[in-house]
Specification:
The complex is a heterotrimer of chains A (352), B (309) and C (272).
Chain A: E1 3-12, E2 15-25, E3 30-34, H1 41-49, E4 56-61, E5 64-65, E6 76-79, H2 91-101, H3 106-119, H4 135-147, E7 153-157, H5 165-182, E8 185-190, H6 193-199, E9 202-207, E10 210-215, H7 217-222, H8 227-232, E11 239-246, E12 249-252, E13 272-277, E14 282-284, E15 290-299, E16 304-310, E17 313-319, E18 330-335, E19 340-343
Parallel strand pairs in A: 3-8, 3-9, 6-7, 7-8
Antiparallel strand pairs in A: 1-2, 1-4, 4-5, 9-10, 11-12, 11-13, 13-19, 14-18, 15-16, 15-18, 16-17
Helix pairs in contact in A: 2-3, 2-4, 3-4, 4-5
Chain B: H1 15-48, E1 49-50, E2 61-62, H2 65-71, H3 74-105, H4 112-120, H5 127-137, H6 143-150, H7 166-193, H8 198-205, H9 210-238, H10 244-247, H11 261-271, H12 275-308
Antiparallel strand pairs in B: 1-2
Helix pairs in contact in B: 1-12, 2-12, 3-7, 3-9, 3-11, 7-9, 8-9, 9-12, 11-12
Chain C: H1 2-30, H2 35-39, H3 53-61, H4 64-94, H5 101-111, H6 116-129, H7 137-140, H8 147-159, H9 162-170, H10 175-186, H11 188-204, H12 207-212, H13 221-230, H14 236-268
The chains are: A alpha+beta (352), B mainly alpha (309), C mainly alpha (272).
Chain lengths: 352, 309, 272
């Protein structure tokens, strides 16, 4: 099912949680709503499920305007962060619950529950109660319950954040697998960029209720729309070098030599800017334009991560180390084309 | 619980969901309005209706006549005196005994469940039924005098008329203490169980004696609970009636002078058909209870605030 | 020193326990005694035979079987109705949204401090006006809603995570379905407590029946028992047999459900 959100706005009193949100989720797509806490992603999810009414705008499920349809009539499935399993019911009864409200005969209910339980690998646990299951198993049951009624839309509200690190990786793959098997349109809310990058077809990054960028995961990383997007994605975080444009080149504050790159064309001369460089975009170069001093080095296996000092600013870079980086060593750096951006320091707007 | 920012507009509400809450509340509110809210309002009004007649439901005028009548009635003052005497005897004695018992029960004892069952039993049994057993035990030749004879005490006429009716009162107080013990022990015990055991462990490490631990650690930490229980018991003792009834065959003491406030209300109503005086007396009783309830809420708020910090 | 102290504790508890149990002991034993044994001085403790003759005589002299049935009927109906009204109201206060919810609830809470003794005067006339004076309805209808039990249940309902509710709603459940399928089963411990406390209060209720019941066949046990004792021709041993009938069912109930009753009193005792 195709979901369209049309100028969706949600205000609580004078506080605007979501402002003029527009997006279309294609059929069978898994879209991540990503952003720091308080960015409006959960509010948006609650509006999709029908828990929260909209202040303005419309939501369309295919050709149906569901803006005023109550949650029980939307045909969506929702998986909560705390799973929200009914503690007094067995796994089977939990999974059957949505069918029970639809008055599906008991025999059919159990049959369907078996089927879906197999898909999420909890068919051996049907007669246990949620309290006897591990976090990952509870999560699987919650997904089964959300899926059993063949929802038009599957909503997942930070479903992995109550799991430990190892299970989180495993369940991430599982959710992706199950979603691709069922081909259900899914919305996945998370604050974890790594999770979002790994699982989704598309990411909508939000901040303070406003969409920052709606794009493919790789595009978000490679081509951030603004400084916030660049900061939010990537580990280690992107490095910033303040400076200004001079003769079509970037001159870092306190540096002697400018950095020249073709992408700088079009950025007005004399403007104060911030050069953003991903850690992996640095190269050592004998006569590179950026002088730096190595302050610390971490070996990370195939490459090394170095803490470098450029003027007063410390930043991190992955560097192919063939000559042996040692703390205190003076080196010169250049930057690659990929992973380098120029932002307006005030507005955060992308300039190049 | 997370606080909702506003109740309104927080959730979808169809037409049915707007009236739905009231349907859920209706049966409950029906009972509350008819048998609690209306009676409260009515008893206040009634207390100001002078010369109210139950038969015609008419009255001569509004005024303070009922209060005047109540407050100048020697029986009423006797009822107040008796009630206060009862409260002042039952509440402190039961608190001290219950505190000792609760403290002992709180220590790991063999057969603690058996002890608890025995101590809590009076809470579930009919006061008036057990009162009959007490009545026979208080007989001149009953078990209590029999036990006292071992201590060299001559037979005490517990339930008979005697000077000042002091024995009658004593019997009532003994029965009252016995009756309120379970409730008091339970509340103190649950208070004790809420005290972090590390305090006592720390004191034991410092080689403090059990008696010292009790007075220097347990009692001070339990003080707010003791206070609250004292107030709750005071309120319930103000309403003493069901303890009195079986001991003296439905009479207020052997000489008819062991009136309590609730007994006074009943007599005004049922014997003298004076609903105005009964209402006035009930409101005076309520005044006492209200003062203690406010004190209770005040203390609770203070202790809760302290806990938060 | 430690042993002396422990011994002292056991001694104290045992003596206090015996005192606490003495009335029950006296009641149960006397129920089997003969007239001579019950008034003997020094007291006779153990009856010569454990025959049920005193019970039989008591049941012949007064309609105790009728009292017993009345008590059971009143208890079951008022517990049943009160539980349902409390569940519904507690759910409305805990989960549903309507204007004035908080205000109404705190008003109700403040009404908890009103003593029943103060309401009796009006309720007595109300019962007469409703035409149910001296009927068993007079013992049931005034006890169909309880602010206290509603309060206890609401407190429990408040602890159920909101996500369970929304999960159920999204899965197509109405409020009604959610309440009975999810909330109520989850609240079983609190409900048990509420039902037990209510049953105890109803069974032992004495003052109200005394006001509104005159006819012998409409009396419940505690009130019937008091009338029995003041009537001529009832002997102490028969009174003790009758008292045993009143007291024993609740003692049995207590032995089975001590945890719930004690827990309920401990939690609810200081609120109110």
């Amino acid at each position: 099912m195709r979901v369209r959100l049309d100028h969706v706005t949600k205000r609580f009193g004078s506080f605007t949680a979501v402002e003029d949100f527009n997006a279309t989720l294609e059929d069978g797509e898994l879209v991540c709503l990503l952003g720091p806490s308080g960015c409006g992603k959960s509010t948006l999810l609650n509006m999709l499920s029908g828990i929260l009414p909209l202040t303005e705008g419309k939501i369309w499920f295919d050709k149906d305007d569901v803006t005023k349809v109550p949650p029980e009539k939307r045909g969506v499935g929702l998986v909560f962060q705390n799973y929200a399993l009914y503690p007094h019911l067995t796994v089977q009864d939990n999974i059957c619950f949505p069918l029970e409200t639809q008055r599906v005969p008991k025999k059919d209910r159990i049959e369907q529950a078996q089927e879906i339980a197999k898909l999420v690998h909890v068919d051996m646990l049907m007669h246990r109660r949620p309290g006897e299951l591990s976090g990952g198993q509870q999560q699987r049951v919650a997904i089964a319950r959300a899926l059993i009624k063949n929802p038009r839309l599957l909503l997942l509200d930070e479903p992995l954040s109550n799991l430990d690190a190892r299970l989180r990786l495993e369940m991430r793959e599982e959710i992706r697998r199950i979603q691709q098997r069922t081909k259900v349109t899914a919305v996945f809310v998370t604050h974890d960029q790594e999770e979002a990058l790994a699982i989704s077809d598309r990411i909508i990054l939000m901040k303070n209720g406003i969409t920052q960028q709606n794009d493919l995961p790789q595009a978000l990383y490679d081509n951030p729309a603004n400084q916030f997007v660049a900061s939010f994605l990537g580990n280690p975080p992107i490095n910033y070098i303040p400076g200004r444009m001079q003769d079509g080149a970037f001159l870092a504050d306190g540096a002697a030599e400018p950095i020249r790159m073709p992408i700088f064309h079009g950025v007005p001369d004399g403007k104060k800017v911030v050069l953003a460089v991903r850690s992996e975009a640095f190269t050592t170069e004998e006569n590179g334009p950026i002088p730096a001093e190595v302050s610390r080095v971490y070996t990370m296996g195939k490459e090394e991560m170095a803490w470098l000092q450029i003027g007063d600013i410390e930043f991190r870079a992955y560097i192919d180390n063939e000559e042996g980086l040692v703390p205190g060593k003076q080196i010169r750096l250049n930057v690659r084309r990929r992973g380098v951006f120029v932002f307006d320091p005030e507005s955060g707007e992308r300039l190049a | 619980m997370k606080k909702q920012s506003t109740d309104r507009d927080m959730i979808f509400r169809g037409r049915f969901e707007v009236i739905e809450p009231y349907l859920y509340l209706l049966p409950f509110m029906l009972g509350v309005v008819v048998f609690t809210l209306y009676p409260v309002i009515n008893v206040v009004l009634m207390s100001f209706k002078q010369d109210y007649s139950m038969l015609t439901r008419g009255f001569s005028s509004w005024g303070f006549g009922n209060y005047q009548k109540t407050l100048t009635d020697a029986n009423f003052w006797q009822a107040i005196r008796n009630t206060l005497r009862y409260v002042l005897l039952v509440v402190p004695i039961s608190l001290v005994l219950a505190l000792l018992i609760a403290n002992f029960l709180n220590q790991k004892l063999k057969g603690s469940a058996v002890y608890q069952s025995i101590f809590f039993l009076p809470m579930v049994t009919s006061v008036t039924a057990v009162g009959l057993a007490w009545k026979f035990m208080f007989n001149n030749r009953g078990v209590i005098n029999y036990f006292l004879s071992f201590l060299g005490v001559k037979a005490i006429p517990w339930l008979r008329s005697s000077q000042m009716g002091a024995y009658n009162m004593t019997a009532l107080v003994i029965f009252g203490i016995w009756n309120i013990m379970p409730f008091t022990i339970i509340l103190l015990l649950s208070g004790l169980q809420n005290i972090d055991p590390q305090y006592r462990v720390a004191a034991k490490v410092d080689a403090a004696s059990d008696v010292r631990i009790f007075f220097r650690i347990t009692v001070p930490l339990l003080a707010p609970t003791i206070f609250l229980v004292g107030i709750v018991n005071t309120i319930s003792c103000f309403k003493v009636f069901s303890e009195l009834y079986p001991l003296f065959g439905g009479n207020p003491g052997a000489m008819g002078n062991l009136y309590t406030v609730v007994y006074y209300i009943r007599t005004s109503m049922m014997t003298y058909q004076d609903y105005g005086v009964a209402s006035a007396a009930a409101l005076i009783l309520f005044g006492f209870i209200a003062v203690f309830t406010f004190a209770q809420n005040g203390i609770r708020k203070i202790t809760e605030r302290r806990k938060v910090r | 020193m430690r042993h002396v102290y422990r011994f002292f504790i056991y001694l104290f508890l045992t003596v206090m326990g015996l005192i606490m149990f003495l009335p029950f002991l006296w009641m149960f034993l006397s129920a089997f005694k003969t007239s001579a044994e019950v008034t003997a001085s020094p007291p006779v403790w153990i009856p010569s035979s454990f025959s049920l003759i005193n019970f039989q005589l008591a049941f012949e002299k007064a309609p105790f079987l009728r009292y017993f049935i009345n008590s059971v009927v009143v208890m079951i109906s008022s517990v049943l109705v009160t539980t349902v009204t409390s569940i519904l109201a507690a759910f409305a206060f805990s989960r549903l949204r309507f204007p004035g919810r908080q205000t109404l609830f705190s008003m109700l809470l403040s009404m908890m401090m009103i003593p029943f003794e103060m309401l009796i005067i009006t309720n007595y006339t109300t019962v007469i006006d409703l035409g149910i004076y001296d009927t068993i309805w007079a013992l049931i209808l005034p006890f169909t809603s309880s602010i206290f039990y509603t309060y206890i249940l609401k407190n429990f309902f408040d602890t159920v995570p909101e996500s369970l509710y929304w999960s159920a709603r999204i899965d197509g459940a109405s409020n009604w379905h959610y309440l009975w399928r999810v909330m109520v089963p989850m609240a079983r411990p609190s409900l048990t407590t509420v039902i037990l406390l209510n049953a105890l209060a109803s069974w032992n209720s004495f003052m109200w029946p005394m006001y509104v019941i005159i006819k012998d066949t409409n009396r419940t046990l505690p009130w019937g028992l008091q009338v029995f004792t003041t009537e001529a021709g009832s002997n102490p041993e028969q009174q003790m047999a009758a008292s045993t009938v009143v007291v024993l069912p609740m003692i049995i109930l207590f032995l089975f459900a001590r945890k719930y009753i004690v827990g309920g009193v401990a939690r609810g005792g200081l609120k109110g």
